[in-house]
């Protein structure tokens, strides 16, 4: 999902940081649709322009895809059921 | 101050086949801190789409598991896709057992059913949760707006804002 937009962001990161320091940009396809001071403003603009289509919203200072760890999912512990009683 | 108080219940079958109410303490241990929730498109986007005269996706309700170990709220990815929620970013979801996988990022609003407690989460992650009987893993980005009291002794949970 958003492969084209992420590729564009990756290839034009330096340029975006120079042009829109500290801003949140919206990328749709290979086009920068706007730059905003806050993520909320960017999302509102994106919805107005693109409706329910997907679009990329990122802070230009971000260098790569963010890595997220959700321990319950990362460790496969969701709904873990211990084989021994939790208490006596 | 809106408050949600949940007392967990379970049923135990006796040797004679009759069913009696189980211990709430064990019910909370077994079920985990689950609450009924409803989520839909974030209001900041929904407002814009409505102003354009277009319909917004219908919200979906189900069970959410509170996870104080999760910094970010996760929603069931297949549900989000079926609703037609827009993807606004992709992150790398790390795993202890296999390579990192891409996770979609959705702008949502999540509400606790039966209360006005409603939080805009602009970066909820898509994950496969439905198989676990839940549609959301409620993380600390939601809990940052609440007071949570987990009473393991009485088998109760209280959330307020």
Oligomeric description of these chains: heterodimer
Largest sheet of chain B: 6 strands, mixed, barrel
Q: How far apart are the termini of chain A?
A: 48 Å
Which class of chain B in CATH terms? Mainly Beta
Number of structural units classed as domains of chain A: 1
Whole-number radius of gyration of chain B?
18 Å
Q: Note the beta-strand portion of chain A.
A: 15-25%
How are helices and strands ordered from N to C of chain A?
HHEEHEEH
The number of helices of chain B is 4
Average pLDDT metric of chain B: 92
Estimate the helix proportion of chain B, in percent: 10-25%
Strand order within the widest beta sheet of chain B: 4-5-10-6-9-8
End-to-end C-alpha gap of chain B: 6 Å
Low-pLDDT residue spans of chain A: none
Based on secondary structure, the structural category of chain B is alpha+beta
Domains of chain B (count): 1
Task: Please count the beta strands of chain A (DSSP E, at least 2 residues each).
Answer: 4
Secondary-structure element pattern of chain B, one letter each: EEEHEHEEHEEEEHEE
Summarize the structure in words:
The complex is a heterodimer of chains A (88) and B (161). With 88 residues, chain A is an alpha+beta fold. Chain A has one domain. Chain A has four helices and four strands. Chain A has a three-stranded antiparallel β-sheet, sandwiched between helices. Chain A is globular and about 50 Å long. The mean pLDDT of chain A is 89. The mean pLDDT of chain B is 92. Chain B has a six-stranded mixed beta barrel. Chain B has a three-stranded antiparallel β-sheet with strand order 1-12-11. In chain B, strands 2-3 form a two-stranded antiparallel ribbon. Chain B is globular. Chain B has a single domain (3-160), classed as Cathepsin D, subunit A, domain 1. In chain B, strand 7 and strand 8 (101-112) form a beta hairpin. Chain B has helices at 24-31, 43-51, 77-83, 140-143, and strands spanning 3-7, 11-13, 19-21, 34-41, 60-66, 74-76, 89-93, 101-112, 118-127, 136-138, 147-151, 156-160. The termini of chain B are close together. Chain B has 161 residues and is α+β, with helices and mostly antiparallel strands. Chain B has four helices and twelve strands; from the N terminus they run βββαβαββαββββαββ. The chains are: A alpha+beta (88), B alpha+beta (161). Chains A and B meet through helix 3, strand 3, strand 4 and helix 4 of A and helix 2, strand 7, strand 8 and strand 9 of B.
């Amino acid at each position: 999902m958003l492969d084209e937009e992420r590729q564009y962001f990756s290839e034009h990161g330096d340029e975006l940081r120079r042009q829109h320091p500290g801003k949140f940009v919206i990328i749709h396809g290979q086009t920068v649709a706007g730059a905003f001071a806050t993520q909320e403003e960017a999302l509102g603009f994106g919805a107005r322009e693109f409706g329910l289509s997907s679009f990329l919203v990122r802070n230009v200072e971000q260098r790569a895809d963010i890595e997220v760890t959700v321990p319950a999912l990362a460790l496969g512990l969701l709904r873990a059921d211990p084989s021994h009683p939790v208490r006596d | 101050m809106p408050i949600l108080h949940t007392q967990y219940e379970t049923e135990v079958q006796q040797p004679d086949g009759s069913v009696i109410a189980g211990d709430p303490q064990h019910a909370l241990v077994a079920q985990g801190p689950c609450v009924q929730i409803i989520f839909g498109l974030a209001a900041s986007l929904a407002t814009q789409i409505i102003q354009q005269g277009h319909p917004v996706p219908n919200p979906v309700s189900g069970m959410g598991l509170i996870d104080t170990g999760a910094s970010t709220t996760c929603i069931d990815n297949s549900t989000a896709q079926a609703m037609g929620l827009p993807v606004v970013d992709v992150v790398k979801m790390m795993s202890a057992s296999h390579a990192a996988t891409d996770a979609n990022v959705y702008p949502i609003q999540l509400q606790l059913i039966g209360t006005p407690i409603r939080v805009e989460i602009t970066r909820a992650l898509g994950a496969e949760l439905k198989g676990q009987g839940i549609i959301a893993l409620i993380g600390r980005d939601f809990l940052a707006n609440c007071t949570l009291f987990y009473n393991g002794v009485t088998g109760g949970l209280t959330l307020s804002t």
